[in-house]
Amino acid sequence: MAQVPDEALRTLVDSASTAMKMFGEADSGPWRFTRCWLRLVAFDQHGRRPADLSAALADFDMLPADLPGRCKLAQILVNAILRSGRFTAHLDRAVALSEIAAADPHPLPEAELGAAVVRSTALARAVADSAPGVTPRGALAEVEGLARVVGDRQPYAQMVDNARVGLGVVVSGLEGGPASMARSSADMEHALQVMAGLMSGNPRGTARIAALKSFSEVYAAVARGDLPAVWTALDRAEEVASSLPADDAVRSAVRAIRIQFDALRETANPAPAGAAPRGSDPVDPELRARLAALRALAEQPGQTPHERARHLHVLGVAQLRHGFHSRGLLDAAISDLRAALDLVPGDDAQRVPYLTSLGTAYLRRVEKLARRADLVEAVRLLEQGRELAGSNQHQQWTQLSSLLAHGYRMAGDKPRGREVALAGLRGHAWNVLLTGGISDADAAARNAAGDALDVARWCLADGDPGSAALALDACRALILYAATETRDLGARLADAGRADLAARWRDAVAETEPELVPGELRREVIAALAGIGITEDGTTTAAPDAATTRLLAPPDLDEMRAALTALGADMIVYLMPGDEKSGAVVMVPRAEPPSWFPLATLSKQGRAGFDAFLTATTAGSRASRVAVAGSWSATAGTARKTLDDVCDWAWTAAIGPLLERCPQPADGRAPRLVLIPMGELARIPWHAARRRTDRGLRYAIEDALFSYAPSARLLCDLAWRAPVPLSDSGLVVGDPDTAGAAADLPAARAEALAVRERFYPRARYVGRTPDGVAADGGVGTRADLLGWLADEHAGTMLHLACHGVVRPGRAGADTSYLLLAGGERMSAEEIVRVAPARSIALAVLAACGSGVCGRADDEAFSLSTTLLANTATAVVGAQWSVPDAATSVLMYMFHHYLRREGLAPADALRAAQRWMISDAQRVPAEMPAALRAAVDRTTAADPVGWAAFVHFGR
């Protein structure tokens, strides 16, 4: 309404007051209504004075319940409270007013928006207060629905979003994994930036926002596992909060968090086992002071039971972490963790971490004192925790399963222990599938490989190699799996008969990027595809291992054997690294039971030198094809000898013993092995393992055919794909002009043009010709590559003779990419995210580092494997930086055996590599002169020039 002078409004209010006195209390309702409304006008138009709002609320309280218009006035009051700047203080009034307003059959336009804010904020406070009947996930699901109602209408959208962010932090802390925590941290960051804008001109509010922003950085660092960043962010938060009054809630919260983190930090010099005299308590004085500060927090007066429980839990965990050498600390940990558990009701979400910690403490005391009663109690507590967590896909599902399995094994029930441990590993796949992007998936998969190795070692100790194989595969290549498994969720949901959910998903994706779709909708989608029931509040009704589809489970042994038969391979071989323990080989043959054997030398000591070789050969760009053989030698230096040493070690450490145990095929051919090396063993060129004989060096490729796979899961998917014939058309990329981003590769141009002219005459050639001129087909841009991938009729062969770069990392940035024309990039991350997926018979990446994983080794996430997951049936890639000339010769011979001899890709690569090491090389008559010259001036038998290349797929 139009602005009304303050004095005029006061006069009207006085007139209404006079009329109320004249008509008496019985008939004062309409006049009180008018006075209430006038005071609200004054509140909005003249500085939002608290006195005006308080007087309006007092008038409203005196109105008859049946007075016409009372519901609409309640709606106006709700929105006035939202604008008052003291919304939290008036939240109870706003909730009551919203309930009155809800009875209006014809509400005002903004009534629904105000009600959404009130309900969202009330839910957030109910969760913070652990109110009965309100679950964090149920509250979050409802608030996400309210956010859709509000849309982008401000300030309502920001207020609902603040509640959503707060609830997201709670849920991620209780039920989410690192990826969920990382996303919540990003949401907090965004919300705080918006709030900082609103607080401009308010020094105290600005300081509080800055302190909270530093806390969000702490939260993000915890999610990443970046401990140095945790302490840096804590220091910053304390520095900013120090400008606030001593009694400020934010300052007090920052201080409490600092005390908790300091107490959980490991001491610099823990007491060694057995070092303390009998009866003494070897607790570091600094740690004792930190624990005392934590106990003081737990004993502060005026706390709610949940607040005290949280402080006691942190205290107990801190004592537990330092209690291995102190019986006193261990006993104190159990006492305080028990007290924390007793303070929360039986259905409270906090019971899961409390049960986990207390069960862990009892297991620790079993290891120390071997008391049967402690073991019984530990198993009882962990069973309770797993039962609670199992209904929510809790972030501690895998941890609880592992601990419980350990308890069962200590109690002598090894089969049950293996069963529970294997089921627990599925929690990793569930968490990765729930993430929205590669960076989040990376965080979710952080501990998967280590957990899988632990479970596999248990299985091998029990004489169960089949279960060990399932454990290892359950946590392999999870990022790659999730990126492809969730590529077109709308179509998959429609195929599964969930058209309603498919429509909701497509609507959400239409508004934002798929990785930014709200987590609760993604959770519902993945649960539907996995065959896991889900309630209205987002709570799942079954644990991950109860899924009715193979979405979460790795292939079983029968499916692995069937895939081996379909692919014409003989055996899947898992290579398990050892550290302080022995390494092992786990074998899944096509027609025999799984078996295994230990390998004491498959240890870090044996493979330590190879990292020096990789570093030396990829200096500068980290993995860029080197233009001239001489410059490669200068770059590599003495590291060349390291490769020789690694090839020798690989034979004695694994391949020699493996081939001795490998059954020879009845038809006399070489055995065909699919290797899945775990951890850092993925970097080793196992096919180039060698031994010395009377006739000289003999390489493993002379005795067997080796292919590599990211996981048995992907291998099985390849086996069930329809065969794709290799055509004489496709795309050949020859050394695009990178505009100075990398050196020219003259041999790569000669290689690419020869491959195209001799073997794929109908293929499109892009990049540069041998004389450096731009090719008629195009200069080799990112658009050229994407366009070819999108064209189903453009051939089925891709050959890339260009630069590849690998920059290992775990964040959202690209970790490996091709360098194309003008310095453009095509990354592994883009291939699984935006590159069109179509059937390709063969992708040859004659680009350095194209087979190297830029993320954690067990993720097997490289340019080669992402193309394989993107429906290429066979891929050849390089494991390190290779000399240009030798690479060109090998690539030509590979295509020669493929096209002229009719060999399959794996056989053709083996034949080409054997040709490189042969003393009697026969150069094909049709090999161009430029490549013949390269044969003459390179030492073909040097493994540097051929051993980097590996085969994936069919």
In terms of DSSP E residues, the strand content is 5-15%
CATH architecture grouping of the domain at 724-953: 3-Layer(aba) Sandwich
Question: Main beta sheet, described?
Answer: 6 strands, mixed
Q: Which segments are poorly predicted (pLDDT under 50) over 5 or more consecutive residues?
A: 266-280, 618-636
Textual characterization of the structure:
The chain is α/β, with parallel strands linked by helices. Among the domains are: 282-390, Serine Threonine Protein Phosphatase 5, Tetratricopeptide repeat, CATH 1.25.40; 563-708; 724-953, Rossmann fold (3-Layer(aba) Sandwich). It is built from 39 helices and 16 strands. It has a six-stranded mixed beta sheet with strand order 9-8-10-14-15-16, with helices on both faces. A five-stranded mixed beta sheet has the order 3-2-1-4-7, with helices on both faces. The protein has a three-stranded antiparallel beta sheet with strand order 11-12-13. The termini are far apart.
